[in-house]
Write a structure and sequence with these properties.
alpha+beta, 10 helices
């Protein structure tokens, strides 16, 4: 192993620029990707949220940074500062991004990316000033530890890259499964074209083939004849969190942990990687009546209001502050879970928000005021049979990613320190 300054293994290190927002010529009909730090954190950046025009490139000092450049966030008091990504297209960036073009004859850009991932906290601690910002000189002079042999660098990067590719594949599969489940729900319970197995329907789509619809005063719209709208409390128990201060201990035992707001993903799944571990004693005190079970749905009461996720398996897990557990009992659990992302529930959530003096919240009172569309038992059970394997596959992929991420994060510092070698790496 040897140590080089980042500037010694790079062809260019510089920050970007923001063209004048007031000059429409720089922004209208933009075709050039323009990156902001809020997008940094994912390994690869293929596309940006904003684009600038050719005129901005010609009439200002803004630069295009080449494909495979590293981009590092210099600003941000939250988690943003120190995040980095690899640019997979030539693009411009704002001034908060420090962009590093690695010299391919001196270092492997993937290896340098992985090394800098292990330096997140150290990079952040270099920041200075009232706003705690990094600057380009901090990054230029940052020491990079790497094997002298370029091939050895690539071998190390390839091991980590193989794990990341599998994680990315699982994420793509999960996104497709999520879309499939939502499409199925929409077809059956929004368009009401579930298979009508009555003698009149003969398996045809219900509404399209003339199935009778009746007006429901609670939802203020039509639903199929024979269906009902019932309070959530008829089919679910609402388990509020304890409002005492959470235990101070952290990472005590992997057998006991509390579910926090950050564990609840936007796609309805639980992130099992960020656990708040506690002692068995604290766990017993905290979870005396709020230990979650398989198929419980946990919902946030503040912050990301009404974000929800389903507990995928039996686990020793309690719920932390600002989280409510909803436990289905007289309803198919995956049908109920699917309902929560539907228009009816989402519109009710907006209506039932508590507008406090300082922020909005969605508390137990609001949850208990929700109403659920209940189809016939046959329709609900048939939908459950179809959607359950989809949801289970998504949950298995998340668990596999959890193991892969743990393996990658365990290997990463050991490979970078030379404690573990790959082939001829040293």
């Amino acid at each position: 192993m040897t140590t080089k300054l980042l500037s010694e293994i790079s062809t260019n290190i510089s920050s970007g620029l923001t063209p004048l927002r007031s000059n429409a010529e720089f922004w209208e009909n933009g075709t050039i990707p323009w990156l902001k730090t809020e997008q940094l954190g994912e390994k690869y950046i293929y596309e940006t949220n904003e684009h600038i025009s050719e005129a901005a490139l010609k009439k200002t000092s803004i630069k295009l940074f080449p494909e495979n450049s590293l981009s590092i966030a210099m600003y941000g008091e939250g988690k943003t500062r120190g995040n980095l990504s690899i640019l997979k297209e030539a693009m411009a960036t704002n001034q908060a991004c420090c962009n590093v073009a690695i010299d391919p004859e001196k270092a492997d850009f993937e290896y340098v990316y992985y090394f800098l991932k292990t330096q997140y906290d150290k990079l952040r601690n270099l920041s200075s000033g009232v706003r705690k910002n990094l600057n380009s000189n901090d990054i230029k002079n940052y020491p990079i530890r790497l094997p002298v042999n370029l091939d050895s660098q690539k071998k190390i990067a390839n091991v980590l890259k193989a794990l990341d590719k599998k994680i990315e594949l699982n994420n793509r599969i999960n996104a497709e499964l999520e879309a499939l489940a939502k499409t199925l729900y929409d077809y059956w319970f929004v368009q009401f074209d579930f298979p009508d197995d009555s003698p009149q329907g003969q398996g045809k789509p219900y509404k399209t083939s003339g199935g009778k619809m009746v007006y429901n005063p609670t939802l203020k719209r039509e639903i199929p004849q024979g269906w009902d709208v019932r309070p959530i409390t008829d089919c679910c128990d609402i388990v509020d969190c304890l409002h005492s201060k959470k235990p101070e201990q952290n990472f005590v035992s992997p057998d006991y942990f509390l579910l926090q707001l950050e564990n609840i993903r936007d796609d309805g799944l639980i992130d099992v990687n960020s656990k708040y571990f506690v002692s068995q004693e604290d766990y017993a005190n905290w979870t005396s009546r709020i230990e979650v079970k398989k198929h419980d749905v946990v919902m946030t009461n503040a912050g990301r209001i009404a974000a929800f996720a389903q507990i995928p398996f039996e686990v020793k897990c309690g719920i932390g502050r600002n989280i409510t557990a909803i436990r289905p009992h007289d309803i198919c659990p995956n049908y109920f879970f699917s309902c929560l992302s539907g228009f009816d529930i989402q519109s009710q959530i907006l209506t039932n928000l508590d507008h406090g003096a300082f922020f909005k919240s969605f508390n137990v009172k609001g949850i208990k005021a929700l109403n659920i569309v209940r189809p016939s038992d046959e329709i609900e059970e048939e939908f459950e049979k179809l959607v359950s394997p989809i949801i289970e596959k998504r949950q298995k992929a998340i668990l596999e990613n959890h193991r892969l991420i743990n393996l990658r994060d365990w290997l990463l510092p050991m490979l970078m320190n030379g404690q573990v070698t790959v082939g001829e790496a040293s």
